[in-house]
């Protein structure tokens, strides 16, 4: 059965590019436009990985990450932050909140897929 990945990004073009790469690799994709939208889509179904932007309206990626880690069903779900942010301080903040990887935009789909394959839950 295909593994499910949640993409959280306020840019529809980023969601599209990431979605095409993931679907091409055989994953099922759920899309959300920001952290609040993403939380509303985490309804207990199995999500094997989350890819989230950092800078988004309504709820940013770090706040979303902390909220996900507080949900018993998703606390062990690996999260990759996909963002334009490359400062060490932001990366550290993301790691402390529970991010497993940090991919800086613009990204190469093979680089992202390599991170996904390493981290996606069995």
UniProtKB/TrEMBL annotation:
Response regulatory domain: which residues? 4-120
Pfam assignment, any one:
Response_reg
Residues carrying 4-aspartylphosphate: 53
Which domain of life, per UniProt?
Answer: Bacteria
Q: Which SUPFAM superfamilies match?
A: CheY-like
InterPro entries xrefs: Bact_response_regulator, CheY-like_superfamily, Sig_transdc_resp-reg_receiver
Q: Has UniProt tagged this entry with the keyword Phosphoprotein? A: yes
Coiled-coil region(s) at which residues? Answer: none
This protein's UniProt keywords? Phosphoprotein
Q: Is Membrane a UniProt keyword of this protein?
A: no
**Name this polypeptide is given:** Chemotaxis protein CheY
